[in-house]
Structure formats: structure tokens, C-alpha cells
Design goal:
Helix content: 40-55%
Largest sheet: 9 strands, mixed
Number of strands: 23
Low-confidence stretches: 1-6, 24-53, 82-124
Distance between the termini: 88 Å
Strand content: 5-15%
Strand order of the largest sheet: 11-14-13-12-15-21-17-22-20
Mean pLDDT: 82
Oligomer: single chain
């Protein structure tokens, strides 16, 4: 309010000056024309005085008129400008004032627009330096583990949503996060985005000597070594925590580097809690800091200057000295950064607090904004994350959820006018797609084969070490949201490792996460790998999903199943014994698990082969698809299986599609088959062409549970063109088989013609 009053008084004074100065000038000139002549002392003096005085007076008047006109023009220019905010005045005062003032004066976040009230945070009143249109913005993020990899995606989405510049992400990761994020960015294929990874395990020795109580562990200290880790020719970088959400273009933050003065090398926002004031509880003893200290969730680093200042030596000496009395850090790297700044306050350039609105409990974050337009960066720096207490938390949570569930495929936007590095994968993809005939009735089927689906591996924590006897088996399956209810039942039936590919949208992925985290059965299992393949296109990419699940099996063998089948109790151990019994390690064999089905949603699952045969005779169970697709499983020879006590070999026949256990190095599924039809048949044909031997297990079985028909089978049944295209793709596959396997593949053509 005080700033507004001052602004009004200034405007009024300027207006009055603009009105009165011309009037006074006119009056002065008018009066000047009526000269009062002094009495001459002598005739000669009077004559010379009249001549010279008139010339001098006219010249002086002309100079004065020009000066007044210049003042008028200056006033008009001043009044034509938008009124400067109090923040700008304070900012200039801060730059030209005494930099040695105490932090208690500037540490409240009241510089750069905060002493005059929250309205001073409005960036519209402050002219930001312009970032070149095609200038690359560098961002460094430390990320380790499964959960952090999931969190960082939301941060990246918020940055990509607002950005207008090329981006280069520098990820300091453990092996888990690198596998997840490298696959994600490779399949995301966002234009003008580069990604580099740095092995955090190689950096552990640099910081492992520092005891740390913070939940981030050793990775919470790695921002200290970025000057040593990042490329030596990289001059500046924005460093972000994974729990950050951007509400503006990151280029605005990048532009702040131009405001650094003197020896300033760190851009930080003041800590918005009372932690470093040491008054949170009795005997609370934080690390030393200037006033309230600074939060390191958002850091601007001038790397080249830091290296010249010997940053490595600076922070190490400070940490060693403080640890003698503090014994450990409580807030990881933040404690050490603040201790260094306490000793060297000239290093820091304080950022306005809207660049790091900290949503932990009991913070002063509400002083950082008055309106939505004031928000720049939101920091969920409480262990409670979205459950933090803040009177505006619903607004912040909704903003976060917007990016959490936002379709990442929509962020594949070109930056027009900016040359980007050649992406050979993207170029090859575009070339392949351009060769397809868009007038082909089956164009969409053919195009789907080459679609690159964004993939997030290990969406939840995964931990499984294969057994040392090399007999371990992983169940492989794929599913969409409508089969989610099968997961708990499968986990109860199969105690071994599972690799699942889930076809979901971004919003559905979050629904799945909530479902899994609310399930005691799923949360008790660490050996289930969930791999999210994000939706794109009009077909269900069933074989791509199977391939994704297969590629991330870490056991020697895999059981290729479907999500709507429940394996018999004990099948995991039975298959492991069969590996040894049938010498799977030294032979190309596919072990067939006979498939049955029930039409009952509630089934008393048979606990033995004898019980299954009894239900088969009673009509509770049936051999799988006997009434609609007999050929699919007829070669299993169920009549023989009823009495078999030892494994027996069967021959491949046309349309055979059993569920099998094979070695991990077996061929993948053919991606041209999408939706319904021929997706498993083609794979079994491939196994036969590679001379796999099909062996039926006498005491193994699986049962298909009833469910509503899938969307794809409905399209197959109702759409004639769908069936025509499927037949075309099948014929092309058989021709490819003939070219790849020669004479041996002729039987597939013959068998098809005879069927």
C-alpha cells in the first residue's frame, strides 16, 4: 500500500510539473520582452549597454527555452512508461548498496520485490533479460532408484510443457535410474532434447565420508560434486530436485544468470522454514547459515567461476570443519552449501522466492505469491509430499496432478526455427513411414508395426536375484486396464518372478499405481516387474507388449502366458524341476503347459490333476477354446495328456498356439500382428522354424478365467476390412518365413493351403 501511495504522489507531481513548466516559461518570456532599463551613467555607457545587453539576454533566453523543452520531453517519456514496481527500485538498491549487509536484512525474501508486498513478485513488472531463441538450456538432476525415476518424469513434463528452447538434461543416476530413464527418453523421442547420464556409483567415494541423516541418503550429497562431474566446457547449469514442478518457462530462470554480479556463483532461494534459525525445538542445533539459510531444491550454478574459485576444496574444508562438531548432516548437501555461504556470503545471488515455493509444513511459502501468475516453481520438499499442510495445497496438488496425468506424447513438439542434432532413429522412422502407401486399406495396420511407444520400465520397485542353480523361470504376460483385477490372483498362484507389460495412458498409469500401492498382495511382492507402455494409435500392440516384458526377464527361462490365465498352484517349482529333467540348458525345447477354461467367474480351483480331470468330466472345465478354435490347442493331444505320466513330444500343426516355457534367448513375437488374431500362432511357427521341440508336461495345467470380450476381438468379428488386413499380413509373414528359412518353411505355406 505504501508503494502504491508513493507511486500516486510521484505521478501527481510529474503531471503538475508538466502543466506548470510551460506556463512559467511563457510568463518568463513575456516578462522578458518588457525590459526595465537602468539609468545610464553616461551617454557612452548607456549606448553600449543597450546594444550588448540585448544580445546576451536573447542568447540566454534561447538556451533556457531549449533546456525547458528538453525537460518537458524527458517528463513525457517518464510518464509514458509503465509505473516501475517497488521490486525494481529495491532490486536496484540491492545491486548498488552495501553487499556486506547482514543476511537478516535480506534473508526474509524481501529483496527483489518482497518488501513492498507480494505484488512485487509479479514478473510482468520486471524486465527479464532475453534468452536467445535457440540457446540450449542445461538442467542437472540427481536421480536414483525406482521411485525417484517415476517422480522425475512429472518434473520433466512440466518443463517440456512450458519450454521454448532446446534442453539438455544431465542425469546423475544409479544403474536402475539410468536403465529406466534412458529407455524412456529413447522411446519418448522429444525433439530438441538431449540427455546425458553420469554414473553416481563412481561418485560415491567423493561424498561417502560425510555422515548424512537425510532420507535421500548418499545421493542427496552429489550436487556438491557437479563441478567435477559435468563436462569441463559446460559453463552454467540449473540444478533441480526431483520433487519440483514448473509453472513457467524454464528460460525465465535461465535468464537470471545475467543478473549475477561480481563473484556471485550460486543462485538460491531463501529457506522458507525456521530450520536454520534453530528454534524448532529445545536443543535444536542446525548447521550454520546466514539468517534463514538457503534451500537447494533449485540452484543456479556458474560452473566456470566455481571451478576458478576451487569449489571442491572450499566445500570439503568447510564440511570437515563443521563435522567435527555437528557429526552429521541433517539436510544433506543443503547444510554444506549453507555453511560455505555463511563463510563466503559474496558467492550467493538470492533469487526471488517464487523460484522455489517450498511446500513443507510450517513454511513462509504463502509470502511468495499473491496470484497464480506469480508462481514459477513449486517444491514438494516435505517427506509428506502431496499430503503436506498448506492452505492452498489443493491448488498446488491439482497443478501437480495435471502434469502427472498429462499425455506425454503431446510434448513431442518441434521447436520451429531451431536446428537440432540429427536423430538417426527419428530419421529412419520417418523414412520408413514415408515409404508406406497411405492409400493402402491396411495402412494403419502396417504403420502400427513401426510406431515407437513411450515406455517406462520398472514403474514400481523390483528386486529379484535369480537362483544360483540356473533353473529360475519368469512368468511373462501383458495387460491393459480392464484386466487389472487378475494381478492379485496370479500373484497368489505364481510365487516366482513376473514380468508384465501394461498398456496404459498416463492417467491410467497413476490409477494402476494407486491400485498397486493399496494392495497388500502386490506390495508384498518385490519380484514383479511392471513396465508401462503408453497408449498411442488405434490398435492394441499385443506383440510389442510381449516383447517388452520378455526383454526384461532376468532369469534363464520364461513362461509365456496371458494375463487371463491362472497357472496351477506350484507350477513355478514344477517348471524349474522340468528344466533339469529335460536338460533345457542344452536343447532347444518349448515346454507346453496344457490350457483349459471355465465359464464360471467363481471357480474352486483344482489343486491337482485328478481334481481337474474330475471337473473336466463334470463340465465345470473345458479344454481351451474347444468350441470356437479347436485347432489352436488340438496338437497338445488332451486325450493322451489325461493318462500321461511322463513328458511327451508333439508335432507342430497349422494354427498351433500353446503356452510354453522357453529359454530367455528365444525369438521375439512379430510386431506386425496387433489387436486380435495370429499373434501367438506366428510366434509358435517361428519356434518350429528354428527347430524347437514341443514337449507337453504331463502334470502341468493352466485355466482361462472368463471376462468380457476385448475391444479388438469385437472389431475382428464386426469389421470385414479388419479380417481382410489380418489375412494379408498373415500371407506376408509366411512369405518372409520362406525367404528366411528357405525350403524348410514351405510346409507352413502347404499347411495353410490345406487347412
Amino acid at each position: 500500500m505504501l508503494g502504491m501511495c508513493r507511486g500516486r504522489r510521484k505521478f501527481l507531481a510529474a503531471s503538475l510539473a508538466l502543466f506548470f513548466i510551460p506556463a512559467l516559461t511563457w510568463l518568463y518570456l513575456s516578462v522578458g520582452s518588457f525590459q526595465v532599463k537602468p539609468l545610464p551613467l553616461s551617454p557612452l555607457e548607456a549606448q553600449s549597454s543597450t546594444t550588448l545587453g540585448g544580445a546576451v539576454d536573447r542568447h540566454a533566453l534561447e538556451l533556457r527555452v531549449r533546456a525547458v523543452e528538453e525537460e518537458n520531453r524527458a517528463l513525457r517519456r517518464e510518464l509514458s512508461r509503465p509505473p516501475r514496481s517497488p521490486s525494481a527500485r529495491l532490486q536496484n538498491a540491492g545491486h548498488h548498496g552495501n553487499q556486506s549487509r547482514t543476511h537478516s536484512e535480506e534473508g526474509t525474501g524481501e529483496n527483489e520485490g518482497q518488501k513492498a508486498g507480494t505484488a512485487g513478485n509479479n514478473s510482468d513488472c520486471v524486465q527479464q533479460p532475453v534468452v536467445d531463441k535457440c540457446e540450449t538450456i542445461h538442467v542437472a538432476i540427481v536421480c536414483a532408484g525406482y521411485n525417484a525415476s517415476r517422480d522425475v518424469v512429472t518434473l520433466v513434463k512440466s518443463v517440456l510443457f512450458h519450454r521454448r528452447n532446446p534442453l539438455h538434461f544431465h542425469f546423475i543416476t544409479d544403474s536402475i535410474a539410468q536403465q529406466i530413464l534412458s529407455s524412456l527418453f529413447h522411446t519418448w523421442m522429444v525433439p530438441a532434447v538431449s540427455v546425458d547420464f553420469y554414473d553416481a556409483d563412481e561418485l560415491k567415494s567423493e561424498v561417502s565420508w560425510i555422515p548424512n541423516k537425510h532420507y535421500s541418503g548418499i545421493y542427496g550429497l552429489m550436487k556438491l560434486v557437479l563441478t567435477k562431474t559435468l563436462p569441463s566446457d559446460l559453463q552454467r547449469v540449473i540444478v533441480l530436485d526431483t520433487d519440483i514442478t514448473f509453472a513457467t518457462d524454464i528460460a525465465e530462470l535461465w535468464a537470471v544468470f545475467h543478473k549475477f554480479k561480481g563473484q556471485q556463483v550460486l543462485g538460491l532461494v531463501e529457506n522458507q522454514s525456521d530450520w536454520y534459525l534453530g528454534n524448532l525445538w529445545k536443543n535444536h542445533r542446525p548447521w550454520p547459515a546466514l539468517g534463514r539459510g538457503f534451500n537447494t531444491g533449485v540452484i543456479l550454478l556458474l560452473l566456470d567461476r566455481l571451478r576458478k574459485l576451487r569449489w571442491e576444496q572450499m566445500w570439503r574444508l568447510t564440511a570437515e570443519r563443521e563435522l567435527m562438531s555437528m557429526l552429521s548432516t541433517s539436510l544433506a548437501d543443503q547444510d554444506i552449501f549453507n555453511a560455505v555461504i555463511k563463510q563466503n556470503p559474496f558467492l550467493v545471488h538470492q533469487l526471488p522466492c517464487f523460484w522455489n515455493v517450498q511446500l513443507s509444513d510450517h513454511t513462509r511459502s504463502e509470502k511468495c505469491y499473491k496470484d497464480v501468475s506469480d508462481l514459477k516453481v513449486i517444491h514438494w520438499n516435505s517427506p509428506k509430499k502431496l499430503r503436506v499442510k498448506n492452505k492452498h495445497v489443493e491448488f498446488f496438488r491439482n497443478l501437480y496432478l495435471t502434469f502427472l496425468e498429462y499425455d506425454g506424447n503431446l510434448l513431442r513438439r518441434e521447436l520451429f526455427g531451431c536446428p537440432s542434432e540429427t536423430d538417426h532413429n527419428s530419421e529412419n522412422l520417418q523414412k520408413t513411414l514415408s515409404e508406406l502407401d497411405e492409400d493402402d486399406p491396411c495402412y494403419e495396420f502396417r504403420r502400427e508395426r513401426f510406431t515407437v511407444h513411450r515406455t517406462h520400465l520398472y514403474f514400481l520397485h523390483y528386486e529379484h536375484e535369480p537362483s544360483p542353480d540356473n533353473t529360475d523361470v519368469t512368468l511373462v504376460a501383458q495387460l491393459s486396464m480392464d484386466r487389472l483385477q487378475m494381478l492379485e490372483a496370479i500373484c497368489k498362484h505364481w510365487e516366482g518372478p513376473i514380468s508384465l507389460a501394461l498398456y496404459l495412458s498416463d492417467a491410467e498409469a497413476q490409477q494402476f499405481l494407486r491400485y498397486a500401492q493399496g494392495s497388500e498382495v502386490l506390495m508384498s511382492r518385490g519380484n514383479v516387474g511392471y513396465h508401462i507402455v503408453y497408449k498411442e494409435g488405434q490398435f492394441y500392440p499385443v506383440n510389442l507388449l510381449r516383447n517388452v516384458a520378455m526383454r526384461h526377464v532376468n532369469t534363464p527361462y520364461m513362461f509365456l502366458s496371458d494375463i487371463d490365465f491362472l497357472p496351477m498352484y506350484g507350477l513355478y517349482e514344477y517348471l524349474r524341476k522340468s528344466v533339469v529333467q529335460l536338460d533345457m540348458a542344452n536343447a532347444k525345447k518349448a515346454l507346453v503347459v496344457p490350457a483349459f477354461e471355465t465359464l464360471r467367474y467363481r471357480l474352486s480351483y483344482p489343486k491337482s490333476k485328478a481334481e481337474l480331470l474330475s471337473q473336466l468330466d463334470m463340465g465345470t472345465l473345458f479344454t481351451f477354446r474347444y468350441h470356437v478354435w479347436t485347432k489352436g490347442h488340438a496338437p497338445t493331444n488332451f486325450a493322451k495328456w489325461r493318462t500321461a505320466t511322463t513328458p511327451y513330444r508333439v508335432q507342430w500343426e497349422s494354427d498351433f498356439e500353446p503356452y510354453v516355457m522357453v529359454r530367455r534367448d528365444s525369438p521375439e513375437y512379430d510386431r506386425r500382428f496387433v489387436g486380435f488374431g495370429w499373434n501367438k500362432v506366428a510366434h509358435i511357427m517361428e519356434l518350429d522354424a528354428q527347430e524347437y521341440e514341443f514337449v507337453v508336461l504331463p502334470n502341468a495345467y493352466m485355466i482361462h478365467m472368463p471376462h468380457a470380450p476385448s475391444f479388438d476381438i469385437t472389431k475382428f468379428r464386426s469389421n470385414k476390412q479388419y479380417r481382410v488386413c489380418l489375412k494379408t499380413l498373415k500371407e506376408e509373414f509366411q512369405q518372409n518365413m520362406s525367404r528366411r528359412y528357405g525350403f524348410a518353411a514351405l510346409k507352413y505355406m502347404t499347411a495353410e493351403n490345406n487347412s
